[in-house]
Design goal:
The structure holds two protein chains of two kinds. Chain A is of the alpha+beta class. Chain A contains three helices and seven strands; from the N terminus they run E-H-E-H-H-E-E-E-E-E. Helix content of chain A is 22%, strand content 29%. By secondary structure, chain B is α/β, with parallel strands linked by helices. The radius of gyration of chain B is 22 Å and the shape is globular. The chains are: A alpha+beta, B alpha/beta. The complex binds pyridoxal-5'-phosphate (PLP) and zinc ion.
């Protein structure tokens, strides 16, 4: 199971936990897994089947837009961070 | 104080004033909301003109209650740049020289607001993810306010920026990675540490400080709006807030007319905003590859709003290559006697390119924002400059080295 770290505004939508473990062999599957545990999560993170433009997702610290987006493979040892996009600068 | 609270820029949801920056509903950015009717009653050109010679002359339009943490940021010179204008083919060009701030960049404006807010919210530690200039601004204002500071920078920053930041005594953390990686790390740290990250959880307040670069230009032009402003863009926060600044002056009845044509300047080696503008598409993140570190943000937080500002004001975006950045620094120094860092080189290089492309009309009254001082990035410039003449302290040695050339110019001395 991959480790998923959630930023504060996202925690509200899955029981308040800062991190959780999720199953799946791609990022898309991991998000579906969390959505089954916390219904509605998927609708917040995804919009029209794409990652919400106000969210950035990182697998092992790399922005998935430089990887395979939602199809980025994830394994049991991987860490996924889901963070707000409007930050810094 | 005329702040109503925070409002989501994307969905409009309202929030009370707090150290938060993201909407819980849609994850859009929060922005400070004001009561403009009240501000309209309280401010006039006269009240502003009677204020201090700093950004705090616009306090009525800033989100701070009590006495600010003030090192004297703002109210920097706006100078007509006739020599540079002639060199570029522009009839009426001005330079807003914001390198003349307490820590030598415009970041003192945003940080003066943010650190004042950190005190209001009773934080004891301030922090930031920095491309270099924010580092010194936060460290300096944190020192003055008696706060602990944690500053995160990419490890490969210009040595002068590192030395300057260290002088103020912060905890300086050099991260093995680019700015976007530093920023991602800080966004995660901000999720569990009770620190005031000026550009993360205090971002709505911080960003407001940049409006004063719009206010000042209008005031210094005798309360007039220029035709065009050229603004260096990293995250795009500065540009979008200059836009907001001009709109607000109009909203509260101090100015007539809408904002100028906003024009974004980026380094060609990191130009996600300019690339999106020219392609007409969305912002695609990039991995920066340029000598220009101050603007090296591959994943610009305010990219979408920057594109909106350019579109709504009839502006544009351009870029300058590394070579053009160096030439821009030299051109500004040699025509106007102003020594800027690489971000200023980007502005001058981009301005030149946009005039040559015919995107800027020679008749436009144009203001170029120079936002940082040349001493910060001397390392990249030095290699591009000629060697000076080295001699013994001896008249014969002087004459042998350059006397011949000298005699030709000033015959009577020979
Ligand atoms: C000198 C200088 N100018 C301009 C900017 C651009 O700021 P923004 O990220 O708000 O676009 C920066 C950002 O760090 C900077 O250091
Ligand atoms: Zn919202």
């Amino acid at each position: 199971m991959a480790l998923v770290r959630l930023s504060t505004p996202l925690r509200v939508h899955c029981g308040g936990k800062p991190e959780l473990r999720a199953e799946g062999s791609t990022l898309r599957e991991v998000i579906s897994f969390i959505d089954r545990e916390s219904p509605g999560f998927g609708d917040r993170v995804l919009k029209d089947g794409r990652i919400n433009e106000f969210i950035n997702i990182f697998v092992n610290n790399e922005d998935v837009r430089f990887l395979d987006g939602l199809e980025t493979p994830v394994g049991p040892g991987d860490t996924i961070s889901i963070l707000p996009a409007v930050s810094g600068g | 104080m005329t702040v109503k609270g925070l409002v989501c820029r994307n969905c409009g949801k309202e929030y009370p004033e707090a150290p938060v920056s993201i909407c819980e509903e849609c994850f859009g950015p929060l922005e400070v909301a004001y009561d403009y009717e009240k501000i309209k009653e309280a401010v006039s050109r006269k009240t502003i003109e009677g204020g201090p010679a700093s950004l705090w002359r616009y306090k009525a339009l800033l989100p701070v209650r009590g006495a600010p943490v003030d090192l004297g940021a703002g109210f920097t010179p706006l100078r007509k740049a006739e020599n540079l204008g002639r060199a570029l083919g522009l009839k009426e060009l001005y330079i807003k020289n914001d390198s003349l701030n307490p820590t030598f960049s415009f970041k003192d404006r945003v940080v003066s607001v943010a650190v004042s807010k950190a005190l209001e919210f009773s934080f004891s530690t301030v922090g930031c993810a920095s491309t270099g200039n924010l580092a010194s601004a936060v460290a300096a204002h944190g020192a003055k306010a008696g706060l602990t500071s944690y500053i995160f920078i990419p490890a490969d920053l210009n040595p002068a920026k590192v030395a300057q930041a260290l002088a103020y005594g912060p905890n300086l953390v050099c991260v093995d990675g680019n700015y976007d990686q530093v920023n991602r790390l800080c966004t995660e740290i901000a999720g569990y540490r009770n620190w005031a990250f000026v550009n993360i959880n205090l971002r709505p307040y911080y960003a407001e400080g940049s409006k004063t670069l719009g206010f000042e230009v209008a005031e210094q032009l005798g309360w007039e709006v220029p035709d065009r402003v050229v603004v260096p863009a990293g995250s795009g926060s500065l540009l979008t807030k200059i836009w907001k600044g001009f709109r607000e002056l109009n909203d509260v009845g101090i100015l007539d007319g809408g904002p100028p044509r906003l024009t974004a300047a980026q380094s060609a080696g990191c130009s996600p905003i300019t690339t999106a503008w020219r392609s007409g598409g969305d912002i695609r993140p990039v991995k920066p590859d340029t000598i220009e570190k101050s603007l090296a943000i591959g994943n610009p937080a305010d990219g979408r709003y920057t594109l909106k500002a350019l579109k709504e004001t009839g502006g544009t975006a351009g870029s300058a290559t590394d070579g053009e950045i160096i030439e821009g620094i030299k051109l500004l120094a040699r025509t106007e006697g102003i020594f800027t860092e690489t971000a200023g080189g980007v502005v001058i290089g981009t301005l030149k390119n946009l005039v040559e492309r015919g995107e800027i009309d020679p008749d436009e009254r144009t203001v170029a924002y120079i936002t940082g001082c040349g001493l910060k990035t001397q390392d990249v410039l030095r290699q591009a400059l000629p060697e000076p003449v080295y001699i013994r302290s001896d008249l014969g040695a002087f004459e042998a080295a350059i006397g011949h050339a000298h005699r030709q110019v000033a015959g009577e001395v020979a």
